[in-house]
Amino acid sequence: xxxxxxxxxxxxxxxxxxxxxxxxxxxxxxxxxxxxxxxxxxxxxxxxxxxxxxxxxxxxxxxxxxxxxxxxxxxxxxxxxxxxxxxxxxxxxxxxxxxxxxxxxxxxxxxxxxxxxxxxxxxxxxxxxxxxxxxxxxxxxxxxxxxx
Length: 148
Description:
It is built from 2 helices and 5 strands, in the order αβββββα. The chain is rod-shaped. It is α+β, with helices and mostly antiparallel strands. Helix 1 runs antiparallel to helix 2. It has a 5-stranded antiparallel sheet with strand order 2-1-5-4-3, with helices on one face.
């Protein structure tokens, strides 16, 4: 009887020791999955943004899009906006937002603004500097929902 009681105590101790270890493992795995998804989302947004910037730059180089083009050509979706700033500093289709002025060529992530998660790329073109902005807040909301 004593051996059976001792065996039961040992089983309980092992069970109580393994429980927190398994819980910690699950928490670590969940955190790593969330962080991985967050990185993948940022990389995907950057790829979409760069592809759109290259597409628009190509259309500018071919003369299909100019500073006088209708604003719709600079805004291909609700999340994507673009501006073309000529050598005199005039922006089309509308004034360049202040937070974008002064950015060097290449990809950027301006400081987070209320309700917006911005990814920006700046490219030189023959007609001036092209600024393309993607608001990834909807994407981020989906990542947060997955995390919860």
